[in-house]
Design a protein that fits this description.
The protein is α/β, with parallel strands linked by helices. It has one domain. The chain is built from 7 helices and 5 strands; from the N terminus they run E-E-E-H-E-H-E-H-H-H-H-H.
Length: 205
């Protein structure tokens, strides 16, 4: 959105359940070291980390899994199914072993399907982006500022998150993607048309 420096990214990792419960998010800042100022007025229980480019990586994802386990509390009697896209940071033997010993089952979605099959994409991220942009616009006007600095992001994200993270958003995202309740008929033949065309083109080549 509005950035203090063009080309710099801050990643926000979110998770929600079919019952509309949310795991406190994780922020990843493009820095070498973390400072408490980056956490100012951020979401309660959020996790704050750094990487060279502000993107998540395998090590940070493993740290987030520990954070996830602390809040979701999976067990042998009540295991958890975690649905993910197939991002490279999710794929390693260490992560698979962590899932296995901590009663977390992983399901990876096919490529290029998250806009329909990822509940967060279906019902949450769009409204969150709109709410965050609104908070940024309000901040810039009230502070007569020209830029949003990294130290402002956690507070602005918290305000947007609170306004959007509702039970109904979680329920509707899982329902619209056909996951909970399970509904294989939620997709039509037209939804698979693009994949069939791509497969045909690949075969021809």
């Amino acid at each position: 959105m509005t950035s203090w420096e063009r080309g710099k990214n801050i990643t926000l990792l979110c998770a929600m359940s079919a019952a509309g419960r949310y795991i406190p998010p994780m922020f990843t800042f493009p820095r070498k070291r973390l400072t408490p100022l980056l956490q100012k007025d951020g979401p309660a229980g959020a996790l704050y980390k750094c990487s060279d480019n502000g993107w998540i990586n395998e090590n940070l994802f493993l740290e987030w899994l520990v954070h996830f386990k602390q809040h979701a509390k999976p067990s042998a009697l009540e295991p958890i199914l975690q649905i993910l896209d197939n991002h490279a940071s999710h794929i390693s033997l260490t992560i698979y072993e962590y899932w296995k010993v901590n009663h977390i089952h992983m399901l990876s979605m096919p490529p290029h399907t998250s806009h329909r099959m990822q509940p967060l994409d279906v019902s949450f991220f769009g409204p969150l982006k709109m709410a965050y942009k609104k908070e940024c616009d309000s901040f810039l006007k009230s502070h007569l500022a020209e830029k949003i600095m990294p130290y402002d992001v956690a507070s602005l994200a918290r305000k947007a998150f609170i306004n959007v993270a509702s039970i109904s958003k979680g329920e509707s995202g899982f329902r619209a993607s056909g996951i909970v309740p399970l509904n294989p008929e939620v997709f039509t033949e037209d939804d698979f048309m693009a994949a069939e065309v791509l497969q045909s083109e690949t075969y021809i080549q």
